[in-house]
Design brief:
This protein has helices spanning about 10-20, 25-30, 50-65, 75-95, 100, 105-115, 115-120, 140-150, 170-175, 180, 185-195, 210-225, 235-255, 260-270, 290-295; strands at about 5, 45-50. The chain is mainly α. The chain has 2 domains: about 5-160, no CATH class; about 170-270. A two-stranded parallel ribbon has the order 1-2.
Length: about 300
């Protein structure tokens, strides 16, 4: 069953955003509500989300926040774990369809009405797109739902395991190219599978994972007009992506390593990890000015 969520349009959301930016987390906790006089719903079939469901959602997300340090500022590790847990919870319990989740007004309602304290705790003094839903790759909660949607593997015993393969900044590179790449869960999951096979440790100090991923995605974008990825089976697609990512690694290694060591360095990156479970990949400091690491610097 899918549910229709309230929408808070920009005319009502923007003044609240400005007002809430001046309040503390604890003051925002007193502003929680499941209703707004100007909220609207999509004019499509479906049941409107019950108030009890919104309250249950708030309680669950708030509990995760508390375990991550709320109302005090959390560490970078705490924030990353919060994002992963909330992504899985929102996708698995919201009963929201992609058409609903594509509406920024829904996420504005959740951030400003149902979870304002958690939203502003996660991103103190946030820019507008973190709260208003003008860019779903940036929204405090919307980005989490979409990350989970694109990696969700229902046939797996751990359907959200791939959430840990890439950090937010890296994953956003895929979603930002959603018209050509990031709109297909089939392709996204293949990208994550192949990327998780790599051991980029030999390239540390020469290039970041984010830069390597950017080059890989650029090569896929050039390939996209000539290949229908969805027409391939899983094995064929993985092999195509392995060929492309090898081109990326070869180019990086050739430009940064002694020519006599190129072959060995490339082979070191392509260690066979086909039987290795998905795990969190090594991370570099985020260049996102809103990230906790940048804020602390």
């Amino acid at each position: 069953m899918s549910l229709l969520y309230p929408r808070l349009l920009a005319g009502q959301a923007k003044p609240l955003f400005e007002e809430y930016s001046r309040l503390s987390v604890l003051e925002l906790a007193e502003r929680v509500s499941t209703r707004h006089d100007s909220m609207v719903y999509a004019a499509t079939g479906g049941d409107r989300v019950p108030e009890s469901h919104l309250l249950q959602m708030r309680e669950a997300v708030l509990n995760i926040a508390v375990e991550s340090g709320y109302p005090e500022k959390g560490s970078t590790k705490d924030n990353a774990l919060f994002d992963l847990r909330v992504a899985e919870y929102l996708h698995s319990h919201s009963e929201m369809m992609p058409a609903e989740a594509a509406s920024g007004d829904i996420w504005a309602f959740l951030a400003l009405m149902v979870l304002p304290d958690v939203a502003y705790w996660r991103y103190p003094k946030p820019p507008r797109d973190r709260v208003l839903g003008t860019d779903l790759t940036r929204h405090v909660f919307g980005r989490m739902w979409w990350r989970a949607q694109l990696v969700y593997t229902p046939e797996s015993t751990k359907p959200y395991e791939a959430l840990t393969v890439l950090g937010e900044a890296a994953f956003d590179q895929i979603y930002a190219r959603r018209k050509a790449l990031g709109g297909s869960p089939f392709l996204v999951k293949a990208i994550l599978r192949v990327w998780n096979e790599l051991d980029l440790t030999p390239l540390r100090g020469k290039i970041t994972e984010r830069e390597a991923l950017r080059d890989f995605l650029k090569r896929l974008l050039r390939l996209a007009p000539f290949m229908l990825f969805e027409a391939l089976d899983e094995e064929q697609l993985d092999n195509e992506l392995r060929t492309t990512v090898r081109e990326t690694v070869t180019a990086i290694v050739a430009s940064t390593i002694d020519p006599d060591k190129v072959s060995d360095s490339i082979d070191a990156v392509f260690t066979d990890k086909s039987t290795k479970p998905v795990e969190t990949r090594w991370e570099f400091p985020s260049t996102d000015p809103d990230s906790p690491a940048q804020a602390a610097s």
